[in-house]
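Risk register update: the risk that structure generation would not scale has been downgraded. Supporting records follow, first protein first.
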Amino acid sequence: MLLEFIEYIEEAITGRTPHPEDAIFMSSSAALQQVQSLKGVIANPSNLTIKWDGYPAIIFGRLPNGKLGMADKYMFDRGVLVTSPEEWQQYDAQKASGGLRGTLYEAAAALWPGLNLACEASGYYWADLMYAGQLQPQKGVYAFKPNLVEYQVDVNSALGKIIGNSVGGVVVHQYFNEIGAQPVQWNGKGLKNVPGGVAIINPTAGNKFSLKTPVQLERNAVAAVEKYGSHVDELLAQLPQTTRDKIKTYFNKKITGQTTQELHDWLQNQISAKQYNILVGTEYNGILFGRNTKDEVTESLGYAGLKAIWNSIYAFKQNLAKQLAAQVTGIKEYVNGQPAGEGFVFPTSSGLVKIVDRQVFSAANFAKMG
């Protein structure tokens, strides 16, 4: 397989989809909006899709002259799509940054005919590459691991038969009707699966999802925002964005097992002395702390509320993640040999909601990056 391809095209995203619980680092109103979004997922799960751990993202489609064009995100943003691997190599050779991209052109050559067969209509498709080259069955399954998650598909399944007759595989997410247009969710049209083509995989992989409301967890999330929201907003208002970001990083590291320290200890080497003094103080008299009636050091309402809101939204989302993971059929997902996937995404008016089991996938992802 020509998986070296993944080393050379940068991931085509404008910004990573945030975790719902992290919205509290923006404001209590943003956190409440995420709670409402999770309730929306439960009410309308038909829009849910699997969050595929493909890499990299590519954009391809028919140019006005009918030829197949391909690009990475940065090329597409400049209005550039190349029509052959050779043209791609020429483009790279002329860039100011210089430097050719290794086996990219060989891999593109393997994908090009298959994408040409698969692409029927005009417009451009934004997809995650899952594998390049023809897969060989292993113990009755096709296995591919584009990034962190390994996928296994039974060779006799409907998807397995498509994969068996393919020269590569992509999961298609979005569609542009023209260069420079805003992307919309792909409606499943304009691409086809044909023998010898690139396998076109729908983000749902044929799965239909349903969800039950975890009533108490939902109530806990709403109650936490209502009880502590104003205190958290007051705390955050005293902090620059860089310090907020560091505290968010701590919460991420804590949930994924990268640190066992308390926040005030972890922050000591992460922020300026001035900011540390504001948060912690010399005798735990900073804004993270307070005193009870016995003059004992306690957490301030702002910090206690920050933890309460983050944890309650996390627990609410985690319940949905586990419900959804149990419903995926037709494809098996593994992280470090354990059954797990990257999670799910749901479109809302304020952007995508990401539903990920952070104690499995995120922990493994951080470990890989570390």
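Supporting record for the second protein:
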Amino acid sequence: MTTRIKICCISSIEEAGLAVSFGASAVGLVGHMPSGPGPIPDDLIQKIATTVPPPVATFLLTSETSVNKIIEHHQRTNTNTIQIVDSLSDGNYAQLKESLKNVKIVQVIHVLNEMSVDEAVRISGMVDALLLDSGNPNLKIKELGGTGRVHDWRLSRMIREKSKCPVFLAGGLNPGNVQRAIEEVEPFGVDVCSGVRTGGKLDIQKLRSFIKNVMQTG
């Protein structure tokens, strides 16, 4: 099975076009975050999303934690996928799906310890996919992605094996380690932000190498 590739922290129509031209299956568009790279205004997310051709997925990364606020955020951006980077605090996934029937729901799990495995497996039956990242939502200023850190792939493998839905692997991936990551975890897809950037900008050489290495593996 070909490993899907999601290029995150897209900041312009040009970057989105570049990612798609190199073979990305999805692009990540980052809304307001308490920390981390890549946030852009909602109106720019909406503009970029309209330029991305099907079947490439457009992921809105939202730090909202209530169902109503997540729906409102999506209404301002109109992506075809929502990536929830924090835990739901109000409402449930069934309510989200009922309100957004044609939108895929992806829940981020920040892989910290064995408890993350239990959380992921529990949620996996309620969403369309999981995305395993290396943030830490327990900090005073939450880290909700884009840390550039690798987490324990052994735990990610356990989640992937037990999950009821597809799993994306994120967290510190780059052209040099993505093949080993795929071999160890065997995810449905991989997700990269800082690993294909130089000075915050999408780096064509890194992007080409990353996608080439993924294609050679999966």
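The two ends are 6 Å apart (CA to CA). On this basis the risk owner (M.S.) recommends closing the item.
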